[in-house]
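hey can u check if this looks right to u? its 133 residues, i copy pasted from the old doc so theres a chance i mangled smth
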Amino acid sequence: MPGTSLRIGLDPVLGLVPGLGDAAGAVLAAWIFLEAIRLGAPRATLARIASNIAIDALVGAVPVLGDVFDIVWKANLKNVALLEGHALDPAEAGKRDRLFVTILAGGVAALCGGLLVCGVLLTTWLIRVLTGL
């Protein structure tokens, strides 16, 4: 943007077109993912790239908030940095990838546990309400 250090890429501009813009941005981001596969990036790096694309596409689809998010998130730059890190220092990139996968797995496990607890509590409450106990 003129007068600032903030740079706006193609993704936020495409995101201004409701629906189609975010889909087009995700298709363009998929090119980086395909290049990562072609370059032999490990599965954990591919998972990180895919998650950046998914977050960008999902949040970017929200009107107005998504447009601001696209300017700040810069998923494509993050994904290129992941690939560069893999190419320059595979061991260090592997450590970061393993940490990401561990945190992601822990988050999914916590979410599943929370949903299970909420389901049990809701079922218990419904049974009490319906039976008058």
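The mean pLDDT is 82.
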